[in-house]
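Quick sanity check, SUI1 domain-containing protein:
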Amino acid sequence: MSDWKDRLNVVYSTNPDFKYEKEGEEEQDTLPKEKQALRISLDKRNRKGKAVTLITGFIGTTEDMEALGKLLKVKCGVGGSAKDGEIIIQGDFRNKILELLQKEGYAKARII
């Protein structure tokens, strides 16, 4: 799909290094671990009765969030995903994930 509709207000630029900026695509830098306020909860909604541990509140790049999700999945020995600002771990691992996050340096992580 072409992005010509996103550039309708741009008339002309003589700068050879000019890059079109799309609204809403700015990704934040990852906050330090000790400043991340992660919330750990159990979620059963829209999952056919299966329980998943949901980690929300991560502020940073998707690569860093996916790396944290991978670490948690490996340590818990289960599957899951990291997308849309949430890390989903299959099963009820709230206490184990809280311990793992605190060992990693996420001091503000808490169970809700």
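Posting the structure with no commentary besides this: The CA atoms of residues 8 and 56 lie 36 Å apart.
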